[in-house]
Design goal:
2 copies of one chain form a homodimer. By secondary structure, chain A is α+β, with helices and mostly antiparallel strands. The first copy, chain A, has 2 domains: 75 residues, 3-Layer(aba) Sandwich (Glutaredoxin), CATH 3.40.30; 112 residues, Glutathione S-transferase Yfyf (Class Pi), Chain A, domain 2. Chain A has 7 helices and 4 strands. The first copy, chain A, has a 4-stranded mixed β-sheet, covered by helices on one side. In chain A, helix 3 runs antiparallel to helix 4 and helix 4 crosses helix 6. The mean pLDDT of chain A is 96.
Chain lengths: 224, 224
């Protein structure tokens, strides 16, 4: 049995949900707030954060936390679609872009996404407009880089779908939930995202409704 | 043949150098500045950054960039000391703390370490004291967390040396190069670091001399 505790707007958790979807894994999903204790797992080591996966399908119970531990664990498993390619040189390219995605979008998460959550989820009275501007600016530079890749390749790391695509799509989908991705600036990236969005693994993300928020109408539209 | 291009003060590159040292790998080391082109590898994909490892020991030439791609590639190899444990649950804990290290110390890299490099390597006329303060504050909170772990466990992720130790030690060593780690606040962490520093894999890091800089006398002292 696999169970995932996750915060639906967290890009790292979204990456894991997409990977589980691609692998057609049976998973019991538990949406929860960041920082809330997990009653079922009272002995988590210090500093454990969402997403947390519990996996009892093998001989030993495994608890993995963080996108890196969870996704590498899922890849080491024997079942489901491979999201890291067979050849070592191709795996290196996937992991490079996956790390690029987590590092580069980290700046957008800490600014734009954090402010949107403050505004809509925590209903803060005031927004930090400087942080919002900083985040919008950072996002624009990241998608300009991705537009170049999307123009060169079918998928971000080459010819096949990989964790690089899932991580990048997961981040963009979280910003898109608040209508913050300027898709018109990057037509090739948009075309790639339309393909990603049409995958069955994306459906649960498009159905997300976080209390207090309402995504824009194009968020769940496959032909936006 | 393995060749590594790296910037000596970069914590990610230091992690890779420690791992190569632990594995007793024969590596041709090429220190270079971030952003400088690598003449030998003219066809690197867009956005490639240091550290970059070229590995021609297998059937196919592999070029990996970034700590994640390089270190997972080295672990997938057949030779040398294992830095990810055998059991899946233990690997998950190592990868959790390794990711924690890269994410959490990222804040210190962008502030404190970046300012120190501005001051000493690029000889900037002025320091951004607000960023320095922010970095000092961030570093204190990270080492407070690590002090707790060091008090509980022999190594950061458990009983054996792993990539979690190497990543954390690599980051601290880069800050220590500028005398910025307040070791007296964290005796258990200091004791762990003394053990890390005494490993043969650490010697090349302690011998680093970056042009324009001079590390404090305790930097290379094994019994500081």
């Amino acid at each position: 049995m696999k169970r995932l505790w996750h915060w639906p707007l967290d890009p790292a958790a979204r990456t894991v949900r997409l990977a589980l979807g691609e692998k057609k894994a049976q998973v019991d999903m538990r949406a929860c707030r960041p920082g809330a204790p997990i009653a079922e797992l009272p002995d988590l080591p210090p500093g454990t954060e969402l997403p947390v996966l519990m996996d009892t399908t093998g001989e030993q119970k495994i608890v993995a936390s963080g996108s890196h531990a969870i996704l590498e664990h899922l890849e080491e498993g024997e079942t489901g679609e491979r999201l890291l390619p067979f050849l070592a040189k191709d795996r290196a390219e996937v992991r490079r872009l996956w790390q690029w995605s987590e590092n580069s979008f980290g700046e957008v998460n800490r600014t734009l996404l954090a402010e949107r959550e403050n505004q809509w989820v925590r209903r803060a009275k005031q927004s930090d407009t400087a942080r919002l501007r900083e985040g919008v600016h950072a996002l624009k530079s990241k998608i300009a880089f991705l537009e170049g890749l999307a123009g060169m390749r079918t998928y971000m790391a080459g010819r096949t779908l990989s964790l690089a695509d899932l991580s990048i799509a997961a981040h963009l989908s979280a910003y898109d939930y608040f209508g913050d991705v300027p898709w018109d600036l990057t037509p090739d990236l948009k075309e790639w995202y339309v393909r990603m969005k049409s995958r069955p693994s994306f459906r649960p993300l498009l159905a997300d409704k976080v209390e207090g928020t309402r995504p824009p109408s194009h968020y769940a539209d496959l032909d936006f």
